[in-house]
Design goal:
Oligomer: single chain
Number of strands: 17
CATH superfamily: Carbon-nitrogen hydrolase
Strand content: 25-35%
CATH topology: Nitrilase/N-carbamoyl-D-aminoacid amidohydrolase
Order of helices and strands: EHEHHEEEEEEEEHEHEEEEEEH
Largest sheet: 7 strands, mixed
Length: 270
Amino acid sequence: MSTVAALQMTSGAEVEANLEQARALLEAAAGRGAQLAVLPENFAFMGRTEADRRRVSEPDGTGPIQAFLAASARELGLWIVGGTVPLLGAADGRVAPACLVYDADGERRARYDKIHLFDVQLPDRAESYRESAHFAPGSAPVVLDTPVGRLGLSVCYDVRFPELYRTLSARGAQLFAVPAAFTAATGQAHWDVLLRARAIENLCVVIGAGQSGRHANGRETYGDSLVVDHWGRVLARQAQGAGCVTADIDLAVQQRDRERFPVLEHRVLG
């Protein structure tokens, strides 16, 4: 049996204040016995414009946000999935939305760059987004071993693309991390069902950690951070506001159910 945590934040335009909020939630997760905690997308910065993100972006491997993640993981003895951190270094000058994972010794174990960027006009709303104007997408799926199981990484808009999760599953994933900043409109319509669908399709645990509330740029995010088990059951939920939820997961039960219900072995296409 292992314990995982989903952390929900209402991040603003001041990095230091956001890191203080994140630290309090990480301490709460560790205090509840979590071995791995997932922070939301953009946990360290939700600025007034997407262009503002460049001023807080960091070179890969150095900077206050990355130092915070490493120190918090080491001091709390906690594996941390660091939402997204804006990293410099893309060949075209854009910023990489990088999900970084640190182990309980504060060592970085993985970097996943968000593959699917949110370039949309919301139906029936005067609300549009173009992440690709400032962010460079990744291209490589990432799976890594952790104390709570083999973890596949994804970010927010990725959750709409089941082929990514099929790839992670085929590489042995037992859990998926989904740090996110879903809009209020799309979250209300789709968030819960998408997370549960990815869990059910792959018989994997899903940890969805979201932003919640009104941010400095006027954007409203949905929240509703969830831990979903491999059968699609919601084990824990933080509906609104900042908070930490934890859930116990049992990979032995998951493996038993995979053997009794061998849907992963019945795939024909892909």
